[in-house]
Amino acid sequence: MTDPRLDALLHAAPALRLKTDPADLEHYGRDWTRRWTPAPLAVALPATVEEVQAVVRWANGHGIAVVPSGGRTGLSGGAVAAHGELVLSLERMNQALDFNAVDRTLTVQAGMPLEAVHNAARKHGLVYPVDFAARGSCSIGGNIATNAGGIRVIRYGNTREWIAGLKLVTGTGELLELNRGLIKNSSGYDLRHLVIASEGTLGIVVEATLRLTDPPPPTNVMLLALPSFDVLMEVFGAFRARLQLEAFEFFTDRALHHVLAHGAQKPFDDVHPYYVVTEFAIGDEAKEAAAMAAFEDCMEHGWVSDGVISQSDAQAAQLWRLREGITEALARYKPYKNDVSVRISAMPAFLAETQALLGQAYPHFDVVWFGHIGDGNLHINVLKPDDVGDADFVVQCEQVTKLLAEALKRHQGSISAEHGIGLVKKGYLESTRSAEEIAVMRGIKQVLDPNGLMNPGKLFDT
User: Is residue 125, in this structure, part of any structural domain at all?
Assistant: First the structure.
């Protein structure tokens, strides 16, 4: 017997593709958190903006919540559908729609994978510079929903800096065209930036106009071994002062251990406690000499114990794998993840406090650190021991996250740097935002989603 609500949906959008098989519901109803049992009503896969609007209007008519779904690579439970919601997957809306050579913009549907965006930009001799390890599976709509950053924020900034315009289907099914690709536009509120990082709670991004830029100059990659945590910011300062940095990423010996076990090549004979992989512009003898000068200066000060510089694109890729392969290497351990940020100037004090906090709180857990030091973003992964149950593990970790949130508040940081709040961090939002700010957020949602059907329960409870 079919569900009359779904019959009504297909009547409103006859060409809409629906999935209701249990395997599909499980697949589309979760993200990478794996902490909630997916239980959506169905999965809708629209192919047009009009079908998205029809779905949202149907949802309002029947009081059905809608969970927007991109690549579902999120780590905060933002794409989880566990309470009979309709998952609205944009994976069929995955095409490049327009390229404007004069404006240097690329207009794409929101379901287009990030890697496909990169490839489309390269065909025109340009680049879309936002990049991270999940490029092959994450979607541009999901990147916009969380203002994703990644490995090159130090050079190019977050997703926000590269969005020239958006089309949004609101919580009532209206279509808003935001900014229209303008560089200068002082005609009132910029609703485009309100939508970016809203985690699908204000509506569904269906189309984006992306700014493109020139390809980066030739670069080299260097892997550095550090003797202690304390010298990390000294090394960053030395390299930033001499070089045009494209990326500056740090990880621990535990992170390297897991990546090597996952198949990567060992970079040094000796084991060191901390590592940095940095990419920087070269192209002439002066820049190459500056890179070696930075390295030698760090060696003389005792800030760096060893290092290797890439001699080919293949070697550069091998060095990057040591950093980019961490998340995949840890996946089987069901890690509890913290994704936090502070101002770069606050990093030394925050790092010292947090390292002491986690060392005391997790004496028997394997804690894996890595992060984007150049933009103040740390990823802290606590691995679940085999002899600890899932529920007990989460309870222990959340007790420590409360302490971490308090430390972030003291240092004026954020509990979510680039993965969003979702379900995982909802209880800690007040460590980052004031009560007055949260009240304003609730008011904005009420205007764009008056019935509270767009990704409810994410970010905050309505």
Answer: yes
181 beta partners: none
* DSSP code, position 445: H
Q: Which residues pair with 337 in a beta bridge?
A: 381
Q: What is the spatial order of strands in the sheet that 219-226 belongs to? A: 306-309, 219-226, 274-281, 245-252, 366-372, 377-383, 336-341
Residue 110 near residue 205, CB atoms below 8 Å: yes
* Cα distance between residue 201 and residue 62, in whole Å: 18
Q: Pick the last residue of a domain from 92, 125, 160.
A: 92
Half-sphere exposure of 214 (CA within 13 A, CB side): 3
Cα 134 to Cα 112: distance, rounded to the nearest angstrom: 13
Q: Which amino acid is at 261?
A: A
pLDDT one-digit tens code per residue, 211-232: 999 998 899 999 999 999 889 9
Same structural domain, 101 and 199: yes
Give the C-alpha separation, 421 to 146, whole Å. 9
pTM exceeds 0.85, yes or no = yes
